[in-house]
Amino acid sequence: MQLSHYLKIYPYEEKPGYLLLYSTKKASMVLLKEDTYQAMKKDTLSASDETLLSKLGMIVPDREEEKRSVFGFFDDLNAKNTGLNITVVLNLDCNFSCIYCYEGDMKGKLYMSGSNADLLIDFIKEKFTKDKKSLLVDFYGGEPLLSVGLIKSISQALKLFTESIGASYGFTLITNGSLFKRQTAEELVPLGLKSVKITLDGPAETHNRCRPFKSGAGSFDAIIRNIKETCDLVKIGIGGNYDRNNYEKFPSLLDYLAKEGLTPDKLYVVKFDPVVNRPKGDISPVDYKGGCVSINEPWLLKAEALLRKEILKSGYNTPKLQPIICMVENRDSYVVNFNGVIYKCPAFIGKKGFEAGDLQTGVTDYTFSYKLNIWKNNKCAGCEYLPLCYGGCRYMTFVRDGNIDKPDCKKAYFDASLETLIKQDIKYRLKAGSH
Ligand code: SF4
Ligand code: SF4
Fold first, then answer.
1. If you measure from the C-alpha of residue 385 to the centroid of ligand 2, how many angstroms do you get, rounded to a whole number?
2. Which of 389, 397, 414 has the most ligand 2 atoms within 8 A of CB, as the residue to mutate?
3. Domains detected in the chain
4. Packing angle, helices 148-164 and 114-127, rounded to 10
């Protein structure tokens, strides 16, 4: 057996004589005695150790074969995928006026029409080929609940369709939370509502500054009231967008939530992300520059480690370190804008050159416009982070460079932060196996 190409080895001060091994391919980890590690390198492991470490992906029969399988990840996924995932931008209107809004200059009274909703249903039926078993629709905006009538009619039609062929239908909402009342939840859950993601930008004062109602009034209390009213009916996750000036305030939101009874058992996930600046040349109504343009920015490494630690320490769930599957590479994933134009990623809505067809004429070839397989180059092929990265996020490259001609390399980020993030998981969540 050989050492996996996707193996990271870190010191583990808390347990002298042990090393921490992490597989970027399997997202698995193990604490290993240093002499077992030496045996692993020399291929002289005992049979039981070999079985365990092979199961964890730390050793493999053939490194070249392993690399080939990592390279073929999306081909396999696309060949076997039994799910279809459609993000629907129901409108570009909003009752909030967030200071960093990504959709700033695109926003207005722009709503999906009834005829586009009919075309959307036809499009989904056509893409739901015989091999498909589950359909997931993410309703997005603007603010999707300003189009609650369409959410209901589209869901009724899709539920009927999937049930008639023995498949399943579910949908999620990515909402600002201000309109998500108990009655709305009661009406939407029977139609397939599975989870709701609501954004809270830190504690009341910070949130109200970043995410006020259009009138300028704070929205925090209304959102908290709605979460309390609905969290027994549907899974609610909390997202939040921080910047370099306010991230240190975010942990106090966790204390507040717990104090208000929104304890970890009531919220299925909490995750805070940095605000990403708008791409070069984009006009924003507010000239906001507090966000980031790269995941490698030093303040960001500090902020992410701090906020993730605080979330885990407070007992809330946050996503584990795992490969991020970019929607662009997933053949069974599309974004449909309110006007019927199709994209491959919600961040590219309205960006010229990133249209991937429309509901009238169908999907066009986006291989070149979205630079599929951009990570299939020598540098990425030799990189031990490839299974976690696959060339990073095209939108981040677009923000920085105005094009997506090269990968969004996350090597410096992983070098600086992976060890910390894994050790957080061990300390607050996972019990690493030790051997
Ligand atoms: S390009 Fe970036 S934002 Fe868009 S789907 Fe891929 S990873 Fe997500
Ligand atoms: S983009 Fe950078 S970090 Fe990602 S796989 Fe390629 S070399 Fe590695």
1. 6
2. 389
3. 2-73+419-434 (no CATH), 82-313 (3.20.20.70)
4. 30
